[in-house]
Amino acid sequence: MTSDTAEVVRELTVYESAIEATDIIDRKQLRPIQHGLFGEVGGIMTAAKKLVRERTSYPGYLMAAEEEFGDTLWYFAALCRRRGVGLTDVLDVTVAPKAAAARPRTSGGQVAGGPSTQPSDDLDGALMLLGRSAAALLDSTPSVEQLKEFGCRYVEALAETGISLVDVAKANYRKASGAFLEPLREDLADFDKDFGPEEQLPREFRIRVNQRATGKSYLQWNGVFIGDPLSDNITEQDGYRFHDVFHFANAAVLHWSPVIRTLIKHKRKSKAGFDEEQDGGRAIVVEEGLTAWIFSRAKQLNYFESETRVSLGILKTIHDFVGGYEVESCPMKLWEHTILQGFSVFRQLKSAEGGIIVGDRATRTLRYEPLGEQE
């Protein structure tokens, strides 16, 4: 065994142990895992199809392929776990040594020596064999030999793509742990801790929200009106006039909201770059656009009432949406908390036509209080 293949075996052992905590599917259920694995192999093939169709207009092929191979690895590990087989027992890197070592990437995310405009004939053939072996795993109870066959075809296809198995495993663990594991509070970023209080989002806040007879909502912070009065701006009224609650949820839970920084005039102007790059107009547009997009999805789910989770698809889109901004370091699980808490308060504001938004950055929580009689 070469040093490269020995490293892959070590990394796979670490991955197999660490990734188990993200497996939240009933361990007695095999079908969802089999279907998921087959679907992710289809995702690998879809990425290759897009490369053929779009050629150089699909510069992120290798990044997309790495994610699809990673999701496939997750389901394969889950399937092996349910069959009582170790991942390293069925993934033999020696059948394709090229999968052991990472190859340098270009600035566009491609891999040097990997496919640039279309998959090679070798990759096309490897993907066909991978698809057939994935179909065989749809048997009621896959055998160890079938698992080994799939593992062999997986490594071969990965090698032809030009991505290392170690890179795939590490990237997939980051994604899965960020989506399914509760983050440690001490590991979470506080984006303005190095700034003075006048440039920080408030550590604690109480925002009075009141709807007047005009149907517009008004915000007050420390007795001072902030922002503009808002209406729903749509024919079928849906409560979007209260959507600032989502920006306050971002501030309390994520410690991020260029919109709120602007409303309360707490932009970080003392350090070059922060005011323009993180708190500027483009960042504001990103947050507003993201808020509107999430709201449109939430309407289909009754504003997340009775929901305890946010779909991985929504969370992945959010992560892509905020790429390049400081908040991209926040794990998807934290975004899930932000969305669920924000919509919980939103539903109460909408029902009561007003209330108090209470945020606490220390505990990363947001809650609702009704307006008192004196208010």
SSE blueprint and pairings:
Layout: H1 3-19, H2 31-54, H3 61-83, H4 87-90, H5 121-136, H6 144-161, H7 165-180, E1 204-211, E2 217-221, E3 224-230, H8 244-254, H9 258-263, H10 274-278, H11 281-299, H12 312-321, H13 332-352, E4 354-360, E5 365-369
Antiparallel strand pairs: 1-2, 1-4, 2-3, 4-5
Helix pairs in contact: 1-7, 2-3, 2-5, 3-6, 3-7, 5-6, 7-13, 8-13, 12-13
Task: Provide a descriptive summary of the structure in words.
Helix content is 51%, strand content 9%. The model is unreliable at 105-118 (pLDDT under 50). The protein has 375 residues and is an alpha+beta fold. It folds into 2 domains: 3-181, all-alpha NTP pyrophosphatase fold (Orthogonal Bundle); 187-369, no CATH class. It is built from 13 helices and 5 strands. Strand 1 and strand 2 form a beta hairpin. Helix 1 (3-19) runs parallel beside helix 7, helix 3 runs antiparallel to helix 6 and helix 12 crosses helix 13. The chain has a 5-stranded antiparallel beta sheet with strand order 3-2-1-4-5.
Uncertain runs are: 105-118
Shape: elongated
The whole-number mean of residue pLDDT values reads 89
The number of distinct helices, counting runs of at least 4 residues, comes to 13
What's the story with the biggest beta sheet? 5 strands, antiparallel
Number of E strands: 5
Task: Please give the share of residues in helix.
Answer: 40-55%
Fraction in beta strands: 5-15%
One letter per element, helices H and strands E, the order comes to HHHHHHHEEEHHHHHHEE
Structural class by helix and strand composition = alpha+beta
Radius of gyration: 24 Å
First-to-last CA distance: 74 Å
User: What number of structural domains do the residues give?
Assistant: 2
- Widest sheet: strand order? 3-2-1-4-5
